[in-house]
Specification:
This protein has helices at residues 2-34, 40-67, 75-78, 84-96, 98-106, 113-137, 142-150, 160-178, 199-218, 229-249, 254-268, 277-301, 310-328, 341-369, 376-381, 383-388, 394-398. It is an all-alpha fold.
């Protein structure tokens, strides 16, 4: 029976890893559909190569930083207990690799390729796993300190803070240090729309992410005996709440509609194992409102050129999710309890502060040393031709 459970757990978390791996194609198509046509190839290449760099960095360094487990041992040791630690690494890698995928959407259309890969290696190898280890592996005694202060540990079941808020708040310094795309904001106060290139691809990316998210959330249980149908239904309700709120707030805009479910799912990650489904619906709807209103504010009023709106979507909705777990996870609002609002606030703000500091350090250093932005000529030409020497429809373009 023990061997059967081990094998079942391996299969369970492996299926989760595959589902979250599939989400990376969603990141790619969401970015492809949002950027202009001259940057579509770059969007596809970035996500795949960032994932590959993330795998090496997390395998050699990051996983050890977070969990203290090194894979630089014999294969016989790695295969122990059906290789569960290996598939757990695979599953958690797909989370870690989501960080550069999130950042990619914010810095699209004007970031240099090589320096971004350098940033990916440092972020996934060191910056992200340090906070991951604090939140999910009790590193450095910080969880014990929060518990002694508030009566509960910081709770983040599936990564509203650890993955999404950290990714979004890492992206913000990168976006600010890069500056806006050429001609996006003019000196006379006018703005160039830079409209999406392909709404169907944008929608496809959103749908792939949405479907894969049920592996992201449900399989964060990591073993079959801890799986919870509550997590699945809460994820569903938050997705629906985010969609409907974004539809109303965004006045039927398809870009907002297809990012709405993602906003809801980002927010519900932290407390999806604790909330009542009606609480999850409210949390998701609030996230939809946050995304639409803050995306509009950052783009139009503050003139922050975050191309896919990753700071509002992941950074702010993730922060809301971490705090919402302390509200809607409480018994007073229909949840299972065992959480503290103050523990959630402290842990969430720690994640934000760490990501901001890491983002400014990594991208500030790269900007000062090797540079992080394409030249004006390369940006005008487009990242596809400037970096990859081919456009998204080369045969059609060759006949013109």
């Amino acid at each position: 029976m023990e061997a059967l459970k081990q094998g079942t757990d391996v299969l369970f978390i492996l299926l989760g890893a595959i589902l979250v791996l599939a989400m990376h194609s969603g990141f790619a198509f969401l970015e492809l559909g949002t950027v202009r046509k001259k940057n579509q190839v770059n969007a596809l290449v970035k996500i795949l190569v960032d994932f590959s760099v993330s795998t090496v960095a997390y395998f050699l360094v990051g996983y050890t930083v977070a969990y203290g487990t090194s894979f630089l041992v014999g294969a016989d040791q790695l295969a122990a207990k059906s290789g569960y630690e290996l598939v757990k690494f695979f599953f958690l890698l797909t989370f870690a690799a989501a960080i550069p995928a999130i950042i990619s959407g914010g810095i699209a259309e004007r970031a240099r390729f090589g320096p971004q890969l350098m940033a990916t290696a440092v972020i996934v190898g060191l910056v992200y796993p340090l906070f991951e280890g604090v939140a999910w592996n009790h590193r450095f005694g910080i969880q014990d300190w929060i518990h002694s202060l508030t009566g509960a540990e910081f709770h983040d079941f599936a990564g509203s803070i650890v993955v999404h808020a950290v990714g979004g708040w890492l992206a913000l310094p990168a976006v600010l240090l890069l500056g806006a795309r050429s001609n996006r904001y003019r000196k006379d106060g006018a703005m160039s729309a830079h409209p999406p290139s392909n709404i169907p691809f944008l929608a496809l990316g959103a749908w792939v992410l949405t479907v894969g998210w049920f592996g992201f959330n449900v399989m964060s249980a990591q073993t079959i005996d801890k799986v919870s149908g509550l997590v699945a239904v809460n994820s569903l309700m938050a997705m629906v709440g985010g969609t409907l709120a974004a539809l109303l707030m965004g006045r039927n805009d398809p870009g907002f509609v297809h990012n709405g479910p993602l906003a809801g799912l980002v927010a519900v990650c932290a407390g999806s194992d604790l909330m009542h489904p009606l609480g999850a619906l409210v949390v998701g709807a609030a996230a939809g409102v946050i995304f639409v209103s803050m995306f509009t504010l950052t783009q139009n009023r503050w003139k922050i050129d975050d191309v896919l709106g990753v700071w509002p979507l992941h950074g702010l909705c993730g922060l809301w999710g971490g705090i919402a777990a302390g509200l809607f996870g409480s018994k007073a609002l229909g949840g299972l309890g065992g959480v503290s609002f103050w523990a959630q606030a402290i842990g969430s703000l720690m994640g934000v502060a760490w990501a901001l500091a890491g983002g400014f350090a990594v991208y500030g250093l790269l900007k000062a040393t090797v540079g992080i932005r394409l030249s004006a000529e390369q940006e005008f030409e487009g990242a596809d031709l400037a970096i990859h020497k081919i456009g998204s429809t080369p045969e059609r373009e060759a006949t013109w």
